[in-house]
Amino acid sequence: MINIHQVIRDRYSSVIFSPKQIEDEKLVSLFEAARWAPSAFNEQPWRFVVGVKNKDENYQKLFDCLVEANQYWAKYAPILVLSVALKNSTVTGKPNHFAQYDTGMAVGNLLAQATSMGLFVHQMGGFSKDKTREFFELGEEYEPIAIMAIGYKGDIELFPDDLQERESKKRFRKPMNEILL
């Protein structure tokens, strides 16, 4: 196997979450890691809406934005986060064509930080952008990107068989010759 950093190798999108709350300092460190991501012209166009289960109304709003298939398993995660990108440059006022790319870089940092602390993150594209705009009063200047479920790994034996099976599937990646043009 080719040598890559263990944090990259260990990262995966779990559907089995523990109800254990994430410590505040760990949650803050996820967004500190995101804050330090590179971005075109140092725009830092990423923004996050954080929902903590049983602690704020954002969690339920984010949950209600998810499609039913994602609600089925995401209900176990103690944290839900919406990532959004500021669409226009604060320097030029023109469209920032790198905003989504840069937001992805910030999320990549968040994923690495989470994995390094024993947390799991599952990103979801199955959600209503219209609901996120309505619930969080996001103007047209923001583009909703993804909702993430974040938490500690749960005990797989406590979950329904279909989620156990999904969690236990072998991970795979395309071979190198398919990604290098």
What are the SSEs and their pairings?
Blueprint: H1 6-10, H2 24-35, E1 46-52, H3 57-65, H4 68-74, E2 79-86, H5 99-116, E3 120-124, H6 129-135, E4 142-151, H7 161-168, H8 176-179
Antiparallel strand pairs: 1-2, 2-4, 3-4
Model description:
The chain has about 180 residues and is an alpha+beta fold. Helices cover about 40% and strands about 15% of the residues. The protein has 8 helices and 4 strands. A 4-stranded antiparallel sheet has the order 1-2-4-3, with helices on both faces. α2 packs antiparallel against α5 and α3 (about 55-65) packs antiparallel against α6 (about 130-135). The relative contact order is 0.22.
- Within CATH, the superfamily carries the name NADH Oxidase
* Helical amount: 25-40%
- Strand elements, count: 4
Structural category: alpha+beta
| Tally of structural domains | 1
Radius of gyration: 17 Å
Reported for the largest beta sheet, the result is:
4 strands, antiparallel
**Helix-strand topology string:** HHEHHEHEHEHH
Q: How would you concisely characterize the structure shown here?
A:
With 181 residues, the protein is an alpha+beta fold. It has helices at residues 6-10, 24-35, 57-65, 68-74, 99-116, 129-135, 161-168, 176-179; strands at residues 46-52, 79-86, 120-124, 142-151.
Tag the structure with descriptive keywords.
181 residues, four-stranded antiparallel β-sheet, alpha+beta, NADH Oxidase, 8 helices, 17% strand
